[in-house]
Inverse folding.
């Protein structure tokens, strides 16, 4: 990883909708639609992450780390709350092709993904459609999420399965 981050001046030029303090965004991150992106404080986004919010919106809370090579397709809405660790290579899609209806016109579904406080998401996980990952949930690496996940639980797999309860500290 490069570990060179944008300066405060460079961050300001991007014209985010809202941006907090102590933001570390790698110079190798691609950001599309910055005017639809709000970022809290103490956020780090690592190398080669792509954030596309030209059509939708992305809200990132505070104390969030997004690992490198992640992708956020925010054609609908993606909301990431506080104290979140998103590992490398995680993909989040809130805009999906509508494969259930045939039309000569391109048909899409706009959805909302919500990642609540104190969530840990393992490397390579894919999250699609309407999904709420409740507080304190842990998702194992390479999982596929397309439904709501209960709080303080551990999930893993494709399809995703409940593994066990997680202790709350």
């Amino acid at each position: 990883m490069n570990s060179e981050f944008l300066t405060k001046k460079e961050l300001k030029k991007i014209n985010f909708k809202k941006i907090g303090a102590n933001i570390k965004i790698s110079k190798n991150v691609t950001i599309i639609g910055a005017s639809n992106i709000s970022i809290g404080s103490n956020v780090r986004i690592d190398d080669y992450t792509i954030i596309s919010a030209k059509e939708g919106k992305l809200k990132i809370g505070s104390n969030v780390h997004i690992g490198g090579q992640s992708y956020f397709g925010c054609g609908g809405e993606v909301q990431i709350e506080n104290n979140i660790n998103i590992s490398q290579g995680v993909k989040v899609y809130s805009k999906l092709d509508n494969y259930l209806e045939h039309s000569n016109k391109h048909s899409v579904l706009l959805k909302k993904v919500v990642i609540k406080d104190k969530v840990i998401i393992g490397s390579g996980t894919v999250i699609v459609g309407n999904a709420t990952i409740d507080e304190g949930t842990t998702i194992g690496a390479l999982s596929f999420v397309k439904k709501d996940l209960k709080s303080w639980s551990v999930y893993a797999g494709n399809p995703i399965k409940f593994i066990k309860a997680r202790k709350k500290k």
